[in-house]
Design a protein that fits this description.
This protein is mainly alpha-helical. It is built from 3 helices and 2 strands. Helices cover 46% and strands 4% of the residues. The N and C termini lie far apart (77 Å).
Amino acid sequence: MTILFIILIIIASVILGLIVLVQNPKGGGMAGSLAGISNQFMGVKQTTDVLEKGTWIFAAIIAILSITSTFFIPGGTTTVTNTNASGAPVPANNQPATPANTVPLQTTPPQQ
């Protein structure tokens, strides 16, 4: 399903790029040269308005496809194993394991 979204996003991006390249910021460009003096192309007046609407539509399509595709990206769960500095696993009670050859700390002060 992710491949389908990628293909649709690429197609919409190419079409959006072509629409943008056809436009001229001042209203001329290929739209002006194809439409001639009266700015009429295949029965549509104001080709620049159609191209501007097409730009917004394809930009919205790309945004919607990009956001929607995130729901279909497979996400795996990772298991994290807690380890101490030596690489040994930490017990489940979240207290560090005490090595067998250590002496516990003295909690009472020495007698004088």
